[in-house]
Amino acid sequence: MNKIKIGFDGRHFLGSGGIDRYSRELLKALVHIYPEYDFNLFTIRRKEKLFYPLFPQTNNIHIKAGFLHHFMLGNQVEPLLRYINNTYFFQKSMSNCDLYHCTNPFFYCQTTTPSVITIHDVFPFYEEEWTRNFLGKNTDRIRNIFYRGIHDSRAIITPTYTVKKELLEYIPVIAAEKVFVTYEAGDFTPINDVSLLQQYNIKSSDTYFFHVGRFDPRKNLLGILDAFALLRDSLPQTERDSLRFVYAGKVGKEDESTFQKKIQELNLGDSFLYIHGANDMVISTLFMNAQGFVFPSYAEGFGLPVLEAMHCGCPVITSNTSCLPEIAGDAALYVNPYDIHDIAHAMNQLLHNNSLRAELQQKGYIQTAKFSWKRCAQETHQAYQFALR
């Protein structure tokens, strides 16, 4: 009996963002749980060796490099190479598969092969200012890509019931039975290497709050900094001197001036630390030594960092909106993301109430144990069976 072949587009697997992490961890789980399937991962030429460490001692995954690097001939030729990849190479790769799983809808490509698509959120359909600011002139193009992928796919995966509900509201022609909820997981390996903190000039006497993620208006980093400044200015000098805020993430060139202006406006100085390019070991250590993880996003599709923080024993402050209560349960302090006083008050609670911190830590361990990539893979398998019937 021939194995069912499932194809993945591996061009967007190796980044540090949430979608890339989801794509990697899901496929790793699928490969181990379902040896009766053959998984084909298509990637850029000369990149295939980067995938080998992800799938040791497995014989049901085949890493195939056929795509051209979009920028191999410079920026001017990039659109042509992208077109060649998405038409000729992509179609050729998927023609030998029984099913195509698009894990990143921003890069969906049409194919005659039956497909499943993961819609991580429906933010491109929002009309909020932060959506337009982030997507800019690409808003309509990205919406069209989403519409095409959703229309073409036999099954649709969402990471939460919140996203499923929103998707059915924005595109009511979708049959609810073809939308499958597959919870992701936050099994971030807890590593606590305090020597890494010293490398970033974080002293053992410092008390710090932590945030991780790219600079994105939706993530509300500027509001977080406003709240931190409120907290700092309310404290006596002795506490103020040892209080810091650590941000690990990426600020794009287009946002650099806004970012720096806010830091100067609030006179944060040495109380603010920006770490660019932190690896998982550094982020884990930052989680494990933080007073709290501050994550009051305006909206999320899943909120993976919330579970990662809990897995590392870090108390969480997050928003009372979107899917975040669905994911964090009773294991977080909830705030109105539009109210910096509310955020500052929650930070003050974690700063001065050790019993509350301990309670949130224990509840966090219980909450994050409810999620696993094994469960995500099993729920994804149900979507595959629906699409292949």
Q: What can you tell me about this protein's structure?
A:
With about 400 residues, the protein is of the alpha/beta class. It has two domains: about 5-185 and about 370-389, Glycogen Phosphorylase B (Rossmann fold, 3-Layer(aba) Sandwich), CATH 3.40.50; about 195-370, Rossmann fold (3-Layer(aba) Sandwich). It is about 40% helix and about 15% strand. The protein is built from 15 helices and 13 strands. The protein has helices spanning about 20-35, 80-95, 130-135, 140-150, 160-170, 195-200, 220-235, 235-240, 255-265, 280-290, 305-310, 325-330, 340-350, 355-370, 375-389; strands at about 5-10, 35-45, 60-65, 100, 115-120, 155-160, 180, 205-215, 245-250, 270-275, 290-295, 315-320, 335. The strands form two sheets. Strands 3-2-1-4-5-6-7 form a seven-stranded parallel β-sheet, sandwiched between helices. Helix 11 links the parallel strand 11 and strand 12. The two termini are about 15 Å apart. The mean pLDDT is about 90.
Structural class: alpha/beta
Shape: globular
Output the radius of gyration.
22 Å
What is the name of the CATH class of the largest domain? Alpha Beta
In CATH, the topology of the largest domain is named Rossmann fold
Mean pLDDT: 91
The name of the CATH architecture of the largest domain is: 3-Layer(aba) Sandwich
